[in-house]
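Tokens for ABC transporter substrate-binding protein. Go.
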Amino acid sequence: MKRYKALTWDHPRGYNALVAAAGLPALAEAGIAIEWDRQPLEGFESHPIADLCGRYDLVVLDHPHVGEAVKSACLRPLEEVFGQESVAELEADSIGPSLASYRFGGAHWALPLDAATQVMALRADLLAAPVPVTWDEVTRLSKETGKVALSLAGPHAILSFLSIAAAFGEPPAEADPDVLVSERMGEKVYELMLDLAARSPAAVRDMNPIGILGHMAQHDDVLMCPLIYGYVNYAVPSDGHPIAFHNAPRAVVGGRPGSTLGGTGIGISRRCEVTPALRNHLLWLMSTKAQIGFIPAHDGQPSRREAWHDPDVNARWNGFYLDTANTLETAYVRPRHDGYIAFQGKASALLRQAFETRAAAKDTLSTLQKLYSGYRDTGGER
């Protein structure tokens, strides 16, 4: 029996389907066993990928880690394991940039197990007005109710900043990789977030997305969060009120829903001995049968486009997938160079402090750009 050690993140969406799949009789019959360990969400977002790959054969990661992984040469490229043709087929079948986001340095580095992006979450039973579509409508609802929350804890302050810039027509660091955002755009986004942060309910200020959604399901003091990573589990919760998920806000009706891609992929470490049986199991997880049937049935969030449009899947999960698919198809992909993860954490802390002290936009954005340039130039050594 060939045994593999694997690591995922500690939430039912992150481990239930993987653990259930590892228990299928077909694996034992093929002569392999996979043991899935878990790490907290915060570790998943920030733990050095090379350290994890030194201890595990399979590692669930998110795409901003790929630059760090390539520099440390700790992952196997998918092309090496599955071949160019299989990877191309997977990319064509994956929703939005779910697989493309793991491409860096001329190769792909993780299988898109799970697709997610920031979307709008709200308590439909508490909303008396139509669902907001634009950021002006979000601001109006915030002023009228005081119940519109921003997700700012951990890396999420800068992620929301990036998303809003994309919605207003300037996807960060795309036109010029050395410039995060222009001064004009940065000030526009900062002032919008500063205004919303001032009224964001204090009860959820320090919570990650899971905490905010859990709070919304149980309490009535948060009506909406305009940008939060979608968790299908909360669309039909086992306890509390259901959360309705919709496309992320836009600058104007018909515009791009600004959202920063999330989701997770399965990386194969250099220490892993890839047998035909393991290869087949990983490809099965990406298959139509698993993505439409097995993974949603075990609390997972599939990455295959046809699963997001499947009527049975949507009927089971209250339309979560169809109501947010447009946002995922157009989601913004973060920079992935080595050093970006460190920048992300520092930048979010900077923004939270600036919102707290109501710091001037010009000074905050100047510091933000210097921070970005420093981590980009030094490869994350600071």
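The chain has two domains: 2-115+262-325, 118-260+337-378.
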